[in-house]
Amino acid sequence: MAKITYEGKTFDCAEDKSVLECLEGNGFKIPSSCRAGVCQACVMTATSGTPCAKSQEGLTPNQIELNQFMSCSCKPTADIEVALEEIKKAYSCSVTEQIMLNERTLLLRMTVPNAFSYKAGQFVNVIRKKDGLMRSYSIASVPEDDYIEMHVRCYEDGKMSSWLKGWIEPGCELHFTGPFGECFYTDDKPEADILLAGIGTGMAPLYGIAKDALQKGHTGKISIIQGAMSEEGLYFTKEFAELAATADNCEYISSTVDGSGDGVQEGKIDDVVKANFPSTAGMRVYVCGSPNTVGRLKKYAFMAGASMSDIFSDPFTQASE
Amino acid sequence: MSLYEKLGGADAVNAAVDIFYRKVLADDRINRFFEDVDMERQAQKQKAFLTMVFGGPNNYTGLDMRNGHKHLVKMGLDDSHVDAVIELLGATLKELGVGDDDIGEVAGIANSVRDDVLDR
Q1: Is B58 at the interface with chain A, CB within 8 A?
Q2: CATH top-level class for A2-85?
Q3: What is the pLDDT of residues B87-119, one digit of tens each?
Q4: Which of A68, A225, A279, B97 fits A197 for a cystine, CB–CB 3.0-4.6 Å?
């Protein structure tokens, strides 16, 4: 009989019972709805062991890579450890580089902590030890890099960004938990065209995802679109252009609402995306930036033909306190 | 063979969900009921709905249906909107090559929850 470990306790799972039924039978409340392997309300993560293929049918390749599965359709044949939300470990690293990329964007590079593994495009929660202040930042580097890179949007009254900009210097220790997020490249559709569109520091994960796709030998066309109000808001343009120049199948388009800047396309990012991609059918789409922009771009990508399961996003919200 | 098996089970649901959800969002009669919600979560709900009306296994009770749609009834959800959803459901299945008899059966299941959805 297979054993299921959940919240530190281990239970025997009867042969014809699903993970969901077993946990419910032991008094746990797990969200569920159709209980037929479709609606995904009961999705859990296998933190150890392998969920059966049937319980991953219809999940995105990203969910599968994160070992997520539908607990209603997984009748375990071997021991498995599961969690509703995987608890992430805390890591510490030391800052190696600090560069202002433009007036409001700070690039931070730090050492890769031992045993920390991530996928390009995921994010971490940076924690200030002295008071527990926490903010999420996406990773712009790829796992092959010997550093972790983040792009920090600096706000005048931003507690974390002011601290990172003013008080942290090379050699300082930085703490974070993670990695989090499902916005990353998977190599299951190497021939599909990819669109990566973003604004602000949403470009950080997109840079990592594009680099990762290129390193993994993606053969479909990879198009990166950056949007900003004016040229002052664009950043990392040289790095993106250089990245695109490394492969025939990669292009970089920068755009500004007011048309300022060298070689940019004029218009709001929505319109630039529409003009360049009147159809997104069959494409993989990644969108990062403010929640409103992400919401609009996602909806456009879907209505223009991309499948919901091929659209990945990471909305960046500004902390309210 | 059950209707759900005949339609193709979970594969049919996965094939239908994009088409159906796209039709819903494009339809000015009903899209306001589906706006301003997390698209991933909404797609999951659509999948659960499609599974149910395809005659697949589900655990919905009349009470779930009532509670799940009460806020929409307050927004003005009525018979005309349910009719529109059933119409789009039929158009989706037609696109997937499903025959009229089976479409009728699906519409019948959708109709059977109408009073619960409209909370009357």
Answers
A1: yes
A2: alpha beta
A3: 999 999 999 999 999 999 999 999 999 999 999
A4: A225
| Residue closest to A307 by CA, chosen among A274, A282, A286 | A282
Contact A40 B47 (CB under 8 A): yes
Contact yes or no for B25 and A299 at CB 8 A:
yes
DSSP annotation of A310: G
**Between helices B79-95 and B9-26, what is the axis angle to 10°?**
130
Whether residue B66 lies within 8 A of chain A, CB to CB, comes out as no
Task: Provide the 8-state DSSP code for A236.
Answer: S
- Which of A18, A30, A34, A303 should be substituted to probe chain B, the one whose Cβ sees the most B Cβ atoms within 10 Å? A34
The predicted model scores a pTM of: 0.87
Question: Measuring CA to CA, which residue among B55, B48, B47 is closest to residue B101?
Answer: B55
What are the tens digits of pLDDT across the range A188-223?
Answer: 999 999 999 999 999 999 999 999 999 999 999 999
Question: What residue ranges define each of the domains in chain B, with the CATH number in brackets?
Answer: 3-117 (1.10.490.10)
Exposure class string for A190-217: b at 16+ Cβ within 10 A, else e: eebbbbbbbbbbbbbbbbbbbbbbbeee
Domain boundaries, chain A: 2-85, 88-180, 194-315
Please tell me whether residue A221 adopts helix, strand or coil conformation.
coil
Looking at domain A88-180, which of 2.40.30.10, 1.10.260.40, 1.10.357.10, 3.40.30.10 is its CATH number?
A: 2.40.30.10
Q: Which residue of B has its CA nearest to A311?
A: B40
**CATH 3.10.50.30 at A194-315, yes or no:** no
Which among B11, B24, B47, B63 is the top mutation candidate for probing chain A, defined by the most A β-carbons within 10 Å of its own β-carbon? B47
Q: Tokens 């220790």 appear where?
A: A173
Which ipTM did the prediction report? 0.90
Q: Is A289:A260 a contact under the CB 8 Å cutoff? A: no
Is B57–A41 a contact, with Cβ atoms under 8 angstroms apart?
no
Rounded (5°) CA angle B91-B92-B97: 95
Strand ranges inside chain A, DSSP E: 2-6, 9-13, 43-48, 68-70, 80-83, 90-102, 105-110, 123-127, 134-138, 148-153, 173-180, 194-199, 222-228, 250-256, 265-266, 284-289, 311-315
